[in-house]
Design brief:
Elements lengths: L1 H12 L10 E5 L13 H11 L3 E5 L3 E4 L2 E4 L30 E3 L8 E3 L21 E3 L4 E3 L23 E3 L5 E3 L17 E4 L2 E4 L24 E3 L5 E3 L11 H4 L5 E7 L4 E6 L1 E2 L2 H17 L17 H17 L1 E2 L20 H18 L1
Parallel strand pairs: 1-2
Antiparallel strand pairs: 3-4, 5-6, 7-8, 9-10, 11-12, 13-14, 15-16, 17-18
Helix pairs in contact: 4-5, 5-6
The structure holds 2-acetamido-2-deoxy-beta-D-glucopyranose (2 copies).
C-alpha cells in the first residue's frame, strides 16, 4: 500500500526538472536490463538517470516490473517467486518481488519453495485465521478469531490502549493519552494528518479536503497529502503553495541553457542521433477522471473504516477489506492517475500483472482508451 500511496502522490505532484540532455526511450523485454517500469514512480528513475549520467530509459513492457535492473514477469498467487523473500517475522516488501500487486514472496522456512501469497493485510479487529494475515506486530487470536495487539507490552498501563496508530482500528488514531479515538473530518482541529480522516490532510491545524485547494493556498503538509486541485492544473510547488503548472517549454531542450524544461516536463529525445530534445509534459492520464477516482477511492475507504494507507498495511492484497470494498475505485484511480510519461509507451496493457487485471468490462474500456492515447503519442 505504501507503494500505491507514494505512486499516487508523487505521480500527481512530481516536480520533475529537466536533465541536461534528452532522455531516450527503449522498451525492454523479459530478462532484459531495465531502468524503470510503468508502475514505478517516475521520480525514481530520473534520480537514477541523473546519478549515473545515463539518459537511456529502458522501460519494461506489459505485465513486467523492473527488479534489480532486470525485467521480470509478475506471477499470481501460489506461483514460485525468488525476490524480496519474506517469512512473515518482519514487515514484508509488497513490491519488486515478482508477484502481482498485493502479493508477498513468502517462504515459510529455508529449504522450502517460496511462492506468492497474500500476507499482512488485516488490521486490528478484523477476522483472521493466521497471524500471517495480520499487520506486522498484530497476532491472530485463535479464541476471538480476530487480529489483536497481543501480547500487550508490560510497559503499557492498564488504561493505555495504544502507543501507535497501527494499534487502532481503521478510522481511528492513537492520541497523546494512549487512547484510540475517531479521526476528524474536514474542518476538525489537528496537529498531524494521522488525526484527520482518510480523505483529508492536516493543514495549518485544520483537517482539509484532498485535491481541494486553489492557486496561492498553502499546501505543504506532513505526509505530502495531495491537497491542491490538480483538475485546475495546480501542483504543490517548492514554495509550499498551490501553483499553476507552467506551459511547456518550446525549443531544443538538450540545449539546457536556453530551453531547460519546466516543472512537470521531461526532455525527451526527438532525435537521439543529434541529441535534440523536446519538453514533454508529465501528467496523469486524464486529470479530471483521476481527481474523481482518487476522491471516490478515499471516500470508499473512509466509509468502510479502512486503515490508513500510511500504515504499513498490505492494502492492495486482493482479500483485504479495502480491496473487497473499494477495489474497483482503486483500479480506476491507478489507471486514470497513472503518470503519462514517455516510458508508459512500453506498457500497452496497464492492468496486466496487477490485481486489477480481471476487472469488469468498464476497465477494459479504460484499457483501450489508454492504449489509444499511447498509440497517438507514439505516432
Ligand atoms: C525469518 O527471516 C528472518 C530474516 O529475514 C530470519 O532472521 C529468521 O530466522 C527467519 N525465520 C525462520 C523461521 O525461518
Ligand atoms: C540541441 O542541443 C544540443 C545540446 O546543446 C546540441 O548538441 C544539438 O546539436 C542541438 N540539436 C539541434 C538540432 O539543434
Amino acid at each position: 500500500m505504501y507503494k500505491l500511496t507514494i505512486l499516487l502522490i508523487l505521480v500527481l505532484f512530481a516536480s520533475i526538472y529537466s536533465s541536461q540532455q534528452c532522455d531516450e526511450l527503449t522498451c525492454a523485454g523479459e530478462g532484459q536490463e531495465c531502468t524503470t517500469d510503468y508502475y514505478s514512480v517516475s521520480g525514481l528513475y530520473l534520480n537514477d538517470l541523473n546519478s549515473n549520467g545515463d539518459f537511456k530509459i529502458k522501460a519494461c513492457g506489459s505485465g513486467m516490473v523492473c527488479s534489480n535492473q532486470v525485467c521480470i514477469k509478475v506471477v499470481g498467487e501460489g506461483e514460485p517467486c525468488s525476490n524480496q523473500i519474506c517469512n512473515g517475522t518482519t514487515p514484508c516488501l509488497f513490491y519488486g518481488n515478482g508477484c502481482q500487486q498485493g502479493l508477498v514472496c513468502y517462504q515459510k522456512e529455508a529449504g522450502t519453495p517460496a511462492t506468492c501469497q497474500y500476507l499482512q493485510y488485516l488490521t486490528i479487529g478484523q477476522e483472521c485465521e493466521s497471524t500471517l494475515q495480520c499487520l506486522y506486530t498484530l497476532e491472530c487470536n485463535q479464541d476471538s478469531g480476530v487480529c489483536e495487539f497481543n501480547p500487550k507490552p508490560r510497559v503499557l498501563a492498564d488504561d493505555v490502549q495504544c502507543y501507535s496508530t497501527l494499534q487502532c482500528a481503521g478510522g481511528q488514531y492513537c492520541n497523546a493519552d494512549g487512547q484510540c479515538v475517531d479521526a476528524g473530518g474536514a474542518g476538525a482541529a489537528c496537529t498531524d494528518s494521522a488525526q484527520c480522516q482518510l480523505n483529508t490532510g492536516c493543514l495549518e491545524g485544520v483537517c482539509t479536503d484532498i485535491l481541494s485547494l486553489g492557486v496561492g493556498q498553502v499546501c505543504e503538509n506532513d505526509y505530502n497529502i495531495p491537497l491542491c486541485n490538480i483538475a485546475n492544473g495546480l501542483y504543490c510547488s517548492d514554495t509550499g503553495k498551490c501553483e499553476q503548472l507552467p506551459p511547456v517549454v518550446q525549443g531544443n531542450c538538450s540545449d539546457s541553457v536556453n530551453h531547460a524544461c519546466d516543472v512537470g516536463q521531461q526532455c525527451i529525445c526527438s532525435n537521439a542521433q543529434t541529441n535534440e530534445g523536446q519538453c514533454t509534459p508529465i501528467t496523469a492520464t486524464n486529470v479530471g477522471e483521476c481527481v474523481t477516482a482518487y476522491k471516490a477511492f478515499f471516500n470508499c475507504m473512509l466509509e468502510n473504516k479502512s486503515p490508513s494507507p500510511y500504515a504499513m498495511i498490505n492494502m492492495a492484497a486482493k482479500p483485504s477489506p479495502a480491496m473487497i470494498n473499494c477495489g474497483e475505485f482503486y483500479c480506476s484511480a491507478v489507471s486514470s492517475c497513472q503518470v503519462q510519461s514517455v516510458s508508459n509507451q512500453c506498457n500497452t496493457d496497464v492492468f496486466a500483472g496487477t490485481i486489477c487485471e480481471t476487472s469488469s468490462a468498464s476497465s477494459i474500456q479504460i484499457i483501450s482508451f489508454i492504449s489509444l492515447i499511447i498509440l497517438l503519442l507514439s505516432l
